[in-house]
Amino acid sequence: MSSRSLPPFDPADPLGLDDLLSTEELAVRDTVRAWAADRVLPHVAEWYERGELPGIRDLARELGRVGALGMSLEGYGCAGASAVQYGLACLELEAADSGIRSLVSVQGSLAMYAIHRFGTEEQKQRWLPGMAAGETIGCFGLTEPDVGSDPAAMRTRARRAGADWVLNGRKMWITNGSVAGVAVVWAGTEDGIRGFVVPTDAPGFSAPEITHKWSLRASVTSELVLDDVRLPADAVLPGATGLRGPLSCLSHARYGIVWGSMGAARSSFHAALDYAGSREQFGRPIAGFQLTQAKLADMALELHKGVLLAHHLGRRMDAGTLRPEQISFGKLNNVREAIEICRTSRTILGANGISLEYPVMRHATNLESVLTYEGTVEMHQLVLGKALTGVDAFR
């Protein structure tokens, strides 16, 4: 083939991965990218510096209007998008900020997904349309102050009181908690772990916001406090008993992280590439030095391999063949590589890399949280280790 017939090399898409996307998938990506560029990027550095996400309810409604909430769910006002479309949206949202992607992920992949998959028709009709529109914000209560990677050891309990349930306990590090209208809370019962749909205006429920964070600062993070919260019998999610319920929700959220982390990496890489072309030292742009080019080449390799991995997992999810171990593969690799891309990008920017005028340090600190939530590095290594060897090393 003559080189004259080849398409030009595109530094933004060096592998030509856009060729793998349909017209509809590209349209979804471009819609979310344009929304983030308009509503998040001009303000997110200030939000991060202030440690708050002002106007979160307005943002949620706008995200509902673009179809980003409960995006891959069917019915009840949800978009019914493909897994790849949802993944592309996560990538674009996290390219703006991990906190925005977390808002969408917790709303759709955790709270809405739990109700959609395990709830009654009445629960779905009551909650999902408002959540899909962003009129009601949801949160997901699993992690506790003393219980993280071992949710079976949770201390939150639900006991029968006549026909009602009474919940007592604490949940920690809950995204959206202080602004949520509904919480999906997991608690131990005499029949095992069960999920409960908890209106946040129920007496005994409170959600104090967690402050003094150095990561996910443009995000609402809370504790959930349940002191004798009395719920009717129909508050329980009937389709989930045991850990399979919450863990399946986490798998859905982890899939979004596989894509989203590559958005943070892409933003940092492009900042470093642009900076290297304009920053001059020793009489020429630093992009012309071999060590800088080596860094850029290595970052581009890991970035686009990660996007290709996410795309592959998305196609498997759409085909119904994606296994939880494969999601662990993607989450472990992509978040770990995204952090390394951010750190290497920071070295190219030098001292400017720590300034909020550039997105690099903001993404790097956010990814420290992403590395931990929805399964730590160690947990995903053990998931893969068990799958590869057949030996369970968790206990």
TrEMBL record:
Signal peptide: none annotated. GO terms for biological process: fatty acid beta-oxidation using acyl-CoA dehydrogenase; fatty-acyl-CoA biosynthetic process. InterPro entries: Acyl-CoA_Oxase/DH_mid-dom, Acyl-CoA_Oxase/DH_mid-dom_sf, AcylCo_DH-like_C, AcylCo_DH/oxidase_C, AcylCoA_DH/ox_N, AcylCoA_DH/ox_N_sf, AcylCoA_DH/oxidase_NM_dom_sf, Glutaryl-CoA_DH_mitochondrial. It holds the Pfam family Acyl-CoA_dh_M. Residues 242-388 form the Acyl-CoA dehydrogenase/oxidase C-terminal domain. Residues 139-229 form the Acyl-CoA oxidase/dehydrogenase middle domain. Keywords: FAD, Flavoprotein, Oxidoreductase, Transit peptide. Its cofactor is FAD. The keyword Secreted does not apply. GO terms for molecular function: fatty-acyl-CoA binding; flavin adenine dinucleotide binding; glutaryl-CoA dehydrogenase activity. Gene3D superfamilies: Acyl-CoA dehydrogenase/oxidase, N-terminal domain, Butyryl-CoA Dehydrogenase, subunit A, domain 2, Butyryl-CoA Dehydrogenase, subunit A, domain 3. Residues 23-135 form the Acyl-CoA dehydrogenase/oxidase N-terminal domain. The keyword Cell membrane does not apply. It comes from the Bacteria. PANTHER family: GLUTARYL-COA DEHYDROGENASE, MITOCHONDRIAL. Belongs to the acyl-CoA dehydrogenase family. This is Acyl-CoA dehydrogenase family protein. It comes from Streptomyces chumphonensis. The lineage of its organism: Bacteria, Bacillati, Actinomycetota, Actinomycetes, Kitasatosporales.
